[in-house]
Amino acid sequence: MSRTAPARATLLYSLYCGASALIAPFAWRKVAGKLRDYGLPEDRVRERLGHASLPRPAGRLIWFHAASVGESLSVLTLIARMGEQAPDAEFLITSGTPTSAELIAKRMPPRCRHQFPPLDTAAAVDRFLAHWRPDLGVFVESELWPQMLVRARKTGCPLVLLNARLSDKSVAGWTKRPDTARFILDQFDLLVTQNRKTAANLKAMGAAPDRIRPGSNLKAVSAPLPVDQDTLAKVRGSIGERPVWVASSTHDGEEETVLEAHKALLKQHPGLCLLLAPRHPERGGKVEALVKQAGLSCARRSKGVLPGTQTQVYLADTLGEVGTWYALCPLVFLGGSLRDIGGHNPFEPMQAGAAVITGTGHYNFAETYAELTALGAAAEVRTAAELADQVAQWLEKPEVFQSARDAAAQFISRQSDQLDTTVDALLALLPHEGGCDG
């Protein structure tokens, strides 16, 4: 594939390469320790040094690199769609956490395999590239490892930054080093952004405008969260005909507001049940204490208890069950937003058919929420009183609530259409015959 020569390497990049070589033994000890503590076999631990634990498949290989769980899972739908369009293509996913590896293994599309990425040192990266010889490299969101990018590009492998998202802090840091920012971004043949703000930031950082394209947020088209039908039936049966609302992914300092809103709602809806799912289940004991302090009755999921007919709060302090709770109730408040936390993925509840209430501290999804609130698919609140009022409106006016759910479903459908455009753009960069020089 023909391309203009990239910008020259900078002194800062050279210093980074030297520093990475010096700290490599310490970085290796740390990451290896974490993987061993998780119980992984040694051949998998050594993947971080670039030693593959699987053979390279024959044919064209598309490599996806993601940071952790959310980014890794977000590409699975895209990989499945690409696999349908290019039936001869094989896929490799690299991600750094054992949790992401475990979840990917359970949901992996056909012709796909997972490895841990090499440390960003010359020796580890070169070893990785020599074995896998990717024909296309796709880096997800903001996972930019300089040597991995530069050394992959030198093999002739086209590179893509996909679902690009950069924090304001990250942008500010890069713009202070414009030559290095331009050098790193110039390794990419294509930069597909989540939103217009990221596109503008990439241009300001020195990315070539003709390589920047808008795209959908991959998390909007990920496969829906799993639902445990047995658990769903049991909880639904124990709650009965009582109305329910869900407060999901709440953080320290947010449950008090949610519980205050629930107490206000109970005055008009005495049978109402709140299903409260903290972002970090290990906080279950503290959250249970807050519920009791608020004078509300509580049943705790982690203790194997089902909600009774008088249970006012069902504390769902477990991992991996959020999809079941969204299937139980489509009226969802999504936490991480009443405080300056950045918000959480609104696409997961919407994929389950829900409409979403959020606080205003959702800066990680600011552009998405602006569109969702304009469409009526989401509602913003600031206080316990506003939260109670919004929940009450959707409980008492089913036609208004259904309209919000319909708007959310239409938004998700449009994102799926954009996914096909992204697939086409990526496959256009894939060489017709496998085997980038490695």
TrEMBL record:
<dbReference type="Pfam" id="PF04413">
    <property type="entry name" value="Glycos_transf_N"/>
</dbReference>
<comment type="similarity">
    <text>Belongs to the glycosyltransferase group 1 family.</text>
</comment>
<feature type="transmembrane region" description="Helical">
    <location>
        <begin position="12"/>
        <end position="28"/>
    </location>
</feature>
<protein>
    <recommendedName>
        <fullName>3-deoxy-D-manno-octulosonic acid transferase</fullName>
        <ecNumber>2.4.99.12</ecNumber>
    </recommendedName>
</protein>
<keyword id="KW-0812">Transmembrane</keyword>
<dbReference type="InterPro" id="IPR038107">
    <property type="entry name" value="Glycos_transf_N_sf"/>
</dbReference>
<dbReference type="InterPro" id="IPR007507">
    <property type="entry name" value="Glycos_transf_N"/>
</dbReference>
<comment type="pathway">
    <text>Bacterial outer membrane biogenesis; LPS core biosynthesis.</text>
</comment>
<dbReference type="GO" id="GO:0016740">
    <property type="term" value="F:transferase activity"/>
</dbReference>
<keyword id="KW-0808">Transferase</keyword>
<keyword id="KW-1003">Cell membrane</keyword>
<keyword id="KW-0472">Membrane</keyword>
<keyword id="KW-1133">Transmembrane helix</keyword>
<keyword id="KW-0448">Lipopolysaccharide biosynthesis</keyword>
<comment type="function">
    <text>Involved in lipopolysaccharide (LPS) biosynthesis. Catalyzes the transfer of 3-deoxy-D-manno-octulosonate (Kdo) residue(s) from CMP-Kdo to lipid IV(A), the tetraacyldisaccharide-1,4'-bisphosphate precursor of lipid A.</text>
</comment>
<dbReference type="InterPro" id="IPR039901">
    <property type="entry name" value="Kdotransferase"/>
</dbReference>
<feature type="domain" description="3-deoxy-D-manno-octulosonic-acid transferase N-terminal">
    <location>
        <begin position="44"/>
        <end position="220"/>
    </location>
</feature>
